[in-house]
Design goal:
Helix content: 55-70%
Radius of gyration: 19 Å
Structural class: mainly alpha
Order of helices and strands: HHHHHHH
Number of strands: 0
Distance between the termini: 43 Å
Strand content: under 5%
Number of helices: 7
Length: 157
């Protein structure tokens, strides 16, 4: 993807009807009992997909496209290299071609930010420490769509 200016990105977001998130108000405001129900059921489903997820994915792709290609040799921080290796392993398993560009951009942003910015690096380290305390393991056989991880890896004995 070529370079796109901030003005052009703003113009794209504010003039494209499908992703006109800056001028729309959500059809539902206030608190909801369960977020998953608000996002996936009824009239909010299309809104979430068209007005939240789609524009967010486009912006991630645009920003990721502004960064240079990252190689393991271009990284200095040891944990950046761990992230880089995790990215490679992720792409060994991921088979969804329609999300490939999004995932490539997201990994690139994560690795680049971690590598060059102590502020975010230290907070990401804290986050990993914190969620490691209580994180529930994934369900057996998941992910199960567009994912080619072997049974031995999914369910170690």
């Amino acid at each position: 993807m070529g370079y796109i200016s901030a003005d052009d990105a703003h113009k794209f977001i504010t003039t494209t009807k499908e992703v006109d998130i800056l001028h729309d108000t959500p059809p539902c405001t206030g608190e909801v009992k369960y977020l998953i129900h608000w996002m996936l059921k009824g009239r909010m489903r299309d809104y979430v997909i068209k007005k939240i997820k789609s524009p967010l994915e486009k912006v991630i792709e645009i920003i990721g496209g502004r960064l240079p290609e990252i190689t393991r040799e271009s990284l200095l921080h040891p944990n950046s290299k761990i992230l880089f290796d995790a990215k490679d392993k992720f792409f060994e398993y991921e088979e969804n071609k329609t999300k490939k560009k999004l995932f490539e951009a997201a990994w690139k942003i994560l690795i680049a930010e971690y590598e060059h910015d102590n502020y975010y690096r230290y907070r990401f380290d804290w986050l990993l420490d914190e969620i490691g305390k209580n994180w529930k393991p994934r369900m057996i056989d998941y992910p199960n769509i567009h994912w080619k991880e072997s049974e031995e890896v999914k369910c170690p004995k």
